[in-house]
Amino acid sequence: MIDNLVLGFQNAFTPENLLWCFIGVLLGTIIGILPGLGSSTGVAILIPVTLAFDPLTALIMLAGIYHGSQFGATITAILIATPGEASSVVSTLDGYQMARKGRAGPALAISALGSFTAAMISLVALMAVAPVFASVALTFGPPEMLAVMILGLSTIVVFASRNVLIGVAMGLGGLLLATVGVDVGSGTARFAFGQVELYSGIPFVEVMIGLFALGELLNQLHQGAVKPIRARFRDLILTKEDLRRSVPSTLRGTLIGFVVGILPGAGSTLASFMAYGAEKKFSKNRDQLGTGAIEGVVAPDAATNSSANMNFVPTLTLGVPGGATTAVLLGAFLMYGIQPGPLLFENQPGLVWGLLVSFFIGNVILLVLNLPMAPVFAQVLRVPYSYLYPLIIFTSIVGAYTVANNSFSVWIVLIFGVIGYAMKRLNLPMAPLVLGLVIGPLLEKSLVQTSALGDGNIGIVFESPIALVILGLAVLMVFGGRFQKKLTQSVMGGRKGGKGGTRNGSAFVTETSSVEAVGELADEIRADERAAAAAARDSRPDRRGDGPSGRGGGTPPPDGD
Amino acid sequence: MLSLRKKMGVTAASLTGLLALSSCSVLDAQATVPEDWTPRGAVKITVAFAPGGGSDRSARALAQALNEEDLGFNANVENKDGGSGAVGWSSFLGEEGNGNSLLVAEGAINILPILYDVEFEYTDFTPIALFAEDSRVVVAPADSPFEDCNDLIDAARTDRVLAGVSGLTGADAIVRTALEQAGGVEFDAVPFSSSGEVVTALLSGNVDYAPVAASVAAPQIEAGEFTALCSMTAERYDDPVLADVETAREQGIDATVSLWRGFFAAGGIDEVQRQYWIDAAKRAIDSGSFDQYIEQDMLVPTELYGDDFADYLAEYQKEMEAIFS
């Protein structure tokens, strides 16, 4: 271990590698900021540029882009509620509310700090026991992944603060949109209307640009532009209170990202949604989530970063990509003639350890870059939105066009811009829609695979202890709050999660397979939700009335801008 | 800054490229092509898959080999991925008559039109060269009771045998069908969306066997994670690890699977242009840098040009129609 670390430092600490690591994270931050470009496309675009480099240098730079983009994606999510990557959608909820309150500086700073802490913890774990984690990942077959996806889906109840039924409906809308394209089981093209571009599904990045950036612009055209925020200097600095509140959330987020990141294909978007869900259940200040609570910013960011790092576990030890970006990186390995797989650590110790050490260096550079820059970035809010948004949309659309070289992307952006505007006018939450769209294909795939494994019987999910535990967590996610609220009503400050256990498990499998079941589920919850909503209204008169996406912040009536 | 400039550069280049190409195609259709035609400026090589994948690597090897020959033009790779290749190949229809444009393709270009309602067929493009054949090695988890492909077929007569399959239009699907037809049995397929997922399923023992690419199989077999059952090639692999793996034919199973890799020019180009590209292709494919690519990706080196390639494709199309329709 020590020998390996020394070897890694020797290889990573050359002037050339340090320089390219720096360039990588800087480029990554910019790529992350631009909503039209994600880390996977950023890495893909730059692979050809790095072909002339030494393999280690090239991989260090590409990994730098990967790490940098995680940091960058949050910046626009917080400042203008336009996430740079899917995994930052959740950061818009509380991050943007913090920015609206003039606390963009602390939001950006805590995001950087939380991401850094999560990265450090997960990197140590990655280096120390990657092979152990790899074997954990292998115990997650299709039935277990199906349970994970159901757990991810169950977080919808958390993001549908105003009305669970509407949230579930939006989530279903996302799932329905995700059915467009060639299906993995039979290879049939669904809802493609003869458009070959739709064969691979509705492109996610374009949907996000449309919903968030363009939707917001249209909304502002309707309502008149929001006044720029003039934050006072002392509001730009993190307080001790902020730091104190962030510690448990960072650790929770890191842990969740950790577990989700190890699983091949689960992705950091899911991790960030789950981390927010966990905050909503376990945080001391869970009532403030959605109104600009620092926990809601730091937990998902920590989860995203630790999951991004843990994605390297299956990538390096098994030769199986952990996520979209590591899949592209895996391709890069092959281009340099390096064969990732179980023998990579043995055959290429200099390369692997050099790369891992460069992750440390990259994250330190990112913290040094981002922490002092947080107040500077916050100044962007002084620019009137009427200038800012057109610029963002212009760069996003150009970016989206460049990636696919296709005007189809532009149409998707425009169509979803209108949908996003309509959703804002109708006060519908966007986060469940995005969640549905992200989870849809993964859910369907694991459902089809589970059914194939069980010869048409998805009941095999209940034969797996791991899947049962995860389903139990999903039950807790949906009904836990219900018991909690009841307890809170009778016993002051009572905090005990429901122990619904696996008895309710069957309800969940049907939840994924039939629309009616979800309706039933929602019906059950509805009565409680109404009471809870009423209670919330009474206790928090200043609470924002807009959807969980928190985006109405533009000019919603309660704000009175 | 660098990235922004680069992106702007790429956009600008592709925009001007588009403009230039669209005007070119109009001109080419009207004017006759001079005898000494050579491509000038930028030659775009379209790849219908994402960067880093097998097709992309072949396109980059080709671009590099062409550029090293210094033929007076600059070859660039452009990725247009989506729909298992359908997006990129459909878009290449728009290059009709343009001599300055190449397309990297593989067996799936024969299969997609059989399964889906796409606008193109391989005959819409001009076959230039086939430069390699790809096949599959059938592997099982290390602790599998199966030792060769006959064991698989025998087991399938009485029990469920689960096959991990990545994609329904690629080599994996052909292997499964070929083994089924040769043995007169049926396997239960568990569909995955990438070969990485198939490897995970094998490692965790969720499937009984799976066909995987040689370059994926070799390191896992070397590490003792996979047992090789048989190779779907006509002859054994020339590789230290895979040389011991018997072919299906050797085991008495009449099944070979090959997925060609090659490239096309646009449809409707002049004979002079077609001949130019066939000659350029020969020079590029025989170059050292291209050999390195074939070796790295563990492909079977095969070369066919022009009409020979077209005949091969016609034959291949018949085989695929027999399997997929």
From TrEMBL, chain A:
InterPro entries: DUF112_TM. Residues 18-435 form the DUF112 domain. Residues 529-561 are annotated as: Disordered. Pfam families: TctA (PF01970). It comes from the Bacteria. The chain crosses the membrane at residues 17-37, 44-65, 71-96, 108-133, 145-165, 172-192, 198-218, 254-276, 318-338, 350-371, 391-419, 426-443, 458-479. Residues 529-546 have a biased composition (Basic and acidic residues). Keywords: Membrane, Transmembrane, Transmembrane helix. This is Tripartite tricarboxylate transporter permease. It comes from Mycetocola reblochoni. The lineage of its organism: Bacteria, Bacillati, Actinomycetota, Actinomycetes, Micrococcales.
TrEMBL record, chain B:
SUPFAM superfamilies: Periplasmic binding protein-like II. Residues 1-28 form the signal peptide. It comes from the Bacteria. Transmembrane segments: none annotated. Keywords: Signal. CDD domains: PBP2_Bug_TTT. Belongs to the UPF0065 (bug) family. This is Tricarboxylate transport protein TctC.
